[in-house]
Protein 1
Amino acid sequence: MQAWRVHRNGEPGEVMALEEADRPTPGEGQTLIKVRAANINFPDALLCRGHYQIRPPLPFTPGVEICGETEDGRRVIANPALPHGGLAEYVVADRAALLPAPEALDDAEAAALHIGYQTGWFGLHRRAGLKEGETLLVHAAAGGVGSAAVQLGKAAGATVIGVVGGAEKAAVARELGCDVVIDRRSEDIVAAVKEATGGRGADVVYDPVGGDAYAKSAKCVAFEGRIVIVGFASGDIPAPALNHALVKNYSIVGLHWGLYAVKDPASIVHCHETLTEYAAKGLIKPFISERVAFTDAANAVQRVADGTTTGRLVVLPPEVTR
């Protein structure tokens, strides 16, 4: 089969190589899956760089999220078992963790549903307790993680403020359903949030960026607001001033979605059932900005790493793109 493999750590565009490789062999409790679409996530770039919390042995294939077909013909969503990631024609995955792909979504959309939308749902509902009528501030609202949070916020009945960088991303955020869009390159985030909320601030902040985004969030979070820490795409991990949280009476909550698979796997299944219902009702639909040819996967991972993309980039296997 064909697979993209990484033999040394570095920038994705430099270290990913398209090669012929043997099909992976399923281990105990695993199954072989034919890849129908592979969604690119920021962790794929971190894997290439050697900066992810999991460091698979070299060589490995990136790709942590796919829609595929099992040997008995079922269409499923899966997280491939590294080092045999999803940027290949076949993967192996734990049989018990497979989820049915929603009928309302095509292969590319289904491939982009699992990690981003599960993270959003757990962050907004389990960690932040977002309520109907509250105001949700989403950083990187036009990106893969942010766009999912925007749609989930609207589905929950929240007013959604999206922060983006640039006019093109602002247009995408509006299309996704943001009630207010703030271009951080030309606008003062704190002033704009306070103006949009009548001075109250945002009830919930969804932050996959860190760095300056977190610093601005702490200045415009509402009384009894909640800042959800999802990741640090900026590369800058902030050091919160806890005295500030005490004085302003807001909460800082962390979200490590992958931990639910270990501590509460039933909650992931329940969340998937909810997301499937949302998709059937048209409340959510992954925004696929590009369906990428298999031969262009390395460049696509690099662009996600560089933060120049909007929505989701999904790689299609060779037989689909031929």
Protein 2
Amino acid sequence: MTVDRDDRPSIARLNRTRYPGVAPAQATGSAAVRGTVARALFRRVVRDLPVSVDDGSGIHPRNRDWPRMTIIDSDAFFRRLGTSGLIGLGESFMAGEWTADDLVGVLVPFAERAGTLVPPVLQRLRPLVLPSHPAAEQNTVANTRSNISRHYDLSNELFALFLDETLTYSSAHFGTDAAATRAGRADLADAQRAKIDRLLDHADVRPGTRLLEIGTGWGELAVRAAVRGATVRSVTLSREQRAHARRRAQEAGLADRVQVDLLDYRSVDGEYDAVASVEMIEAVGMEYWPAYFNTVERLLAPGGRAAIQAITMPHKRMLASARTYTWVHKYIFPGGQIPSYDAIREAAANAGLRIDDTDAFGVHYARTLRVWRESFEANWERIAALGFDDTFRRMWTFYLAYSEAGFTSGYLDVVQLRFERGA
């Protein structure tokens, strides 16, 4: 498959501006005091975790069977943690101040206890001492294109080097949980096609269906729907993805059935028999979920169906973290918010949409992420040749491992949901 080539100077600019928090941590004043507090709190937390931590003063606790976290520069690590919380944890990894023999293994116990790691009194103080969401990253119509571009327009070639041949950037479905635990890179493309087919089945896509896809990706769903005989309109805010998806439709001889528009979902018009959207709701932003589902309801024909694949988290954790600015927001997905199943159901019901089928498969996402991370590492020399630097490598290694840990621990899940619109 041909992959569109990218603008090398844009990658060079990205490497100069993308890492605002990775400069050396401050060593004096309030940063030093916060670092001392963070050191004490961190040691207290890891006492109860199945992780061996070597912070330069010994290994706590010493267990050779547990994954080991090695803190290379403990003073800088704790200053970052005290100043920026979990953002500092990721930035410290990006700066090379700590490492791990099994990064996912180290992160899973933290993910399993995400709601209890910080004492309640300190959780209440968090909004006063940690960064808040920048106004420029709220998903207004004016800001959303920039938020999307910062991730999805990085480089088509980058994504091609760790995704499978379908260029599908969402959880695959390997058939069964047992199959998922054994799957490797050779299984990924077929599992991605199976995932897409399941979603199209949920939406009852067949010959003659007028399908709207919200969030194009690189075009695999649109092409597979068109092969079924559907007429597809797909909308995206990524110029790179739009160009590639259009090319794919042309190469498949389906350009007359697939229309790809550079358009905000809120600006779509027309009437459609079905709406499909894969892991796009996470990028919408919590305050815009009502607008998202109102748009879906407005565009569906009477009796129409919507099929949405979404990452979810527990409702209480979603509420507790909704106003928290995280490392993922700062470096990977600006403006995003992972919903809970309850939040999706409520927002959809308020818009006149009813969930009538669900399919959860979080184990499959953990395996998908592992395959991506292994491919990313195996292809690093080719990725570096595109212009990406070592800080980007550590950033994306942490992102993929952090995400895998979330699904491995059960803190995160992924579901396919079918919605019906009343007559």
Protein 3
Amino acid sequence: MRRCYLFVVLLVLACASQANTERTKDDLNQVQEQLKNTNKTFKEQQALLDKTEKDLKKADLAIAESSKKLKQLKFDVELNLTEQATLKDKIKSLEIDKKNQQSALAAQLRSAFMTGNHDYGKLLLSQDQVQNVERTLNYYQYLNNARIKELEKLKTTLIELENSRQLLAQNQTQLEELLTTQQQQQEKLVVAKKEQKANYQSLKNTLQKTQSQLVYLKQNEQVLKQTLEQLNQELIESEVKLVGLQKQKGKLDWPSHGKLAHRFGQKKHGSLRWKGVLMNGKEGAPVKTIADGQVLFADWLKGFGWVIVIDHGKGFMSLYGHSQALLKEVGDKVRAGEQIALVGQSGGQSNPSLYFEIRHKGRAVNPIKWCRRI
């Protein structure tokens, strides 16, 4: 009887163990399936995020090109208007010269008429008053020479006047063409900005869905860090000689006008903190370098948009991000206060702003301690 009971117990335990094993296998299969689905979803979301970033970069590039062309067109229009004003002044001056020359010519003709209707034939045949004849001949010669001179001057003035009018007409045509191109470029800029806004919203929605904003920001910061480390290494190798910023601490001008939206050291997201400052600005406003230097980097960076980095020597660098367009290229030397970019919202910014950093030997320092009080 006892043996029979023990057998039953062992049989039950074996069945239970087998059932637990089967249940564990089912649970494991479910977990593996969930992991597989999660991994698939993550890859899909990452692919969507990558596509959104590419679209954003494309829109930022279109805005940068349109902005630079518009800036050049505005300069060309202003130059054309200045040339037109100069030509109009010249035409006005030539018109006055023409009137004066016509008046002088008319006065000479009146003088000749008042002298009398003498001709050379009568004067030569006359035997009386030889001295008077000689005097009159000299007068006629002088009068004719003066008249020819005035006619030549008038002819030259009329030619100059006609040339100036033709140039003015050409300039007017060029101006109309420039304004038409400017309008077309402005329309392209508006379209690019709409695309940028849509891409920014898409990026924002994607990040909210994936709940990976912290990961995204960490990736952006890592990209920036690696870029700056590479630039710092190139600096050491090239031994660019500049005076640095040490003597200008607290005296530097800010690169742009605007309130600080975020300050150095403030909490950014999770454990991340701001390594520079974010300044609100007006779209298209000038971004100026804080000191003399040389352009080390000028390109689009993930999360920061159009970025330009200036080397100031002695291990000092300044960085300007989220630009609408960059106006300098790598290798260009710049002076303090020189315009290097335009304020924008590239790299996924909701509003026009400027991201500004100062670094010394690769370490970010507080720009507020280096620039004058706003």
Protein 4
Amino acid sequence: MQAWRVHRNGEPSEVMRLEEADRPTPGDGQVLIEVLAANINFPDALLCRGQYQVRPPLPFTPGVEICGRTGDGRRVLATPALPNGGFAQYVVADEAALLPAPEALDDAEAAALHIGYQTGWFGLHRRARLQSGETLLVHAAAGGVGSAAVQLGKAAGATVIGVVGGPEKAKIAAELGCDLVIDRRAEDIVAAVKEFTAGRGADVVYDPVGGDAYAKSVKCIAFEGRVVVVGFASGVIPTPGLNHALVKNYSVLGLHWGLYNTKDPQAVRDCHDELTRLAAQGVIKPLISERVPMDGAAAAVQRVADGTSTGRIVVLPSGAAR
């Protein structure tokens, strides 16, 4: 089979190589899956760079989530077992962790529903307890993680403010349903949020960026607001001032979604049922900006790494647009 392999750490476009490889062999409790679509996530770039919290042995295949078909014909969502990730024609995954692919979504959309939307749902509902009528501030609102949070925030009845970089991404955020879009390159985030909320600030902040995004967020957080720390796409990990959190009476909440797979797997399945229901109603629908054939994967991962992409880029190993 064909698979993208990383033999040394570095930038994705430089270290990912498309090679012939043996099909992985399922172990106890695992199943072989034909990959129909593999969604690109920012952690794939971090894996290539050797900067992710998990460092698989070299060589490895990146690709942390897929939509695929099992030998008995089931269409499923899976997180492949590294070092044999999803940018390949076949993967193995734990049978117990497989989730049925929503019928309302095609292969590419289904592949993009898993980690980003699960992270958004757990962040907004389990960690931040977002309530209808509250104001939600989403950073990188036109990206894969941010666009999911925007849709889930609107589904929860929140007023959503999206922060983006540039007019093209601003247009996409508006189309996603943001009630206010702030271009961080041209506008003052803090002033815009305070003006829009009549001085109150945002009740919940969803931050997959870190760095300056976090610093601006805590300057416009509401009384009893909650900042959900999802990741650090900027490359800068903030150092929260706990004295500031005390004085302004807000909470900083960490979210590592992957822990729920081992700590509370039933919650993951329950969340998937809810996401499937919302997808069937048309309330949420992953924003797929590109569907690339197998040989375009390395360049696509690099675009995600560089922050130039919008929505989700999905690799289709067969080369067909599903």
